[in-house]
Amino acid sequence: MKVPRNKWAEADHAHAWHPFTDQEIWEGEEPLVIQKGEGSWLIDTEGRRYLDANSSIWTNIHGHSHPVIVEAIQRQAATLCHSSYLGLANDKASELAEKLCAFFPGALERCFFSDDGSTALEVAFKMSLQWRQQNGQEERTGIIAFENAYHGDTLGAASVGGVSRFIKGYGECGLQVYRVSGLEDLQALPAVVVDTASAVVIEPLIQGVNQMRPWPKGMLSELRQWSERNGIHLILDEVMTGFGRTGAMFACQKEEVVPDFLCLAKGLTGGTLPLAVTLTTSEIYEGFKGPDRTFYYGHSYTGNALGCAVALANLSLFETEKTLENVDRKGAFLESALLKLPGVLEIRRVGLVIGFDIEGCGRKFCRRLREEGVLTRPILNTIVLMPPLSVSDEELAFLVCAVKSVMSR
Ligand SMILES: *Cc1c(COP(=O)(O)O)cnc(C)c1O
Predict the structure, then answer these.
(1) Residue 237 alpha carbon to ligand 1 centre in Å
(2) What is the pTM of this model?
């Protein structure tokens, strides 16, 4: 084991435990300790700069420490950080709920706040299931999900996910799940499954954790038609695709689909604070009114004012910086530059979400990228490139150069 370089690395090796990490490997390496963020860049305790090529695990939108975001946090922190959302409202959560619903006028009219992508999904599952129980459809208790899907790590969300290495040990103790591989498989489901399903859940346009795999064009709108025809709620997990990543504000807009539940998290605060939201329809909402029909669910930090204030700033930046206008152009630039590199086996892209496959080990490839000043994480042998939407053309060129030099080593 190497001797860690500084006191933070030392404290980390002595006391911290990282997510999705083999701690045996981790302890054998010098940890990178990030101390600062600036635009598309992260800076470590030694002053080295790295391009944040996966937007800090798919969260960052407008760059790190954007002055408008920083100002919103400071102003809100000095006003109100948090007050309970149980029995109380707060001005920032009210404004945010109104703004989010305005993207789906007359369709998605209610916001239920939570903290992370996983909890946004838990909310949708619980709402769908409880709604059935108290609205005369007690037989509908199942959830239909797609193979290799990822919907988060809390127990319920994990049990719906289909990535075997993530659900080992948990998959059997959660919801009642039917997994299908695609539309054809879905349409072949026996009536007993269809008639007892409460909801179908999907990552629209592209599965993230499944090595960035796009669905065929038109699939989402066909799925919506199928779910409507069969009286099954459609839950869209836009935790990754939401807030511009695909070139539209929300991926579902690209196929003009409005779900029954829309789950948002990662980009909601521009990659700064944990906040999530589940949007739903008036029909679902109305089904929770009256005696013994309460949605008994919530967290201590539900409706967090600081998070909501920064989410509002995030949304305002989309307008002032015309963020969406350049997403597809930037993605297309990266794609065409990567296509010219001989070591790229396959490339998959939606908007500014890119996965490309390499011959060798993804983890080693990303270690070398780090030496070239680029941070990202692989999924098996797929390298993920998903820089902040605010990334500049020069930074994209730097990124391509780094990939190229790792390949030519
Ligand atoms: C990240 C992610 C989640 C889980 O979100 P957390 O904030 O990590 O709980 C769920 N679904 C998708 C599609 C994701 O990318």
Answers:
(1) 8
(2) 0.97
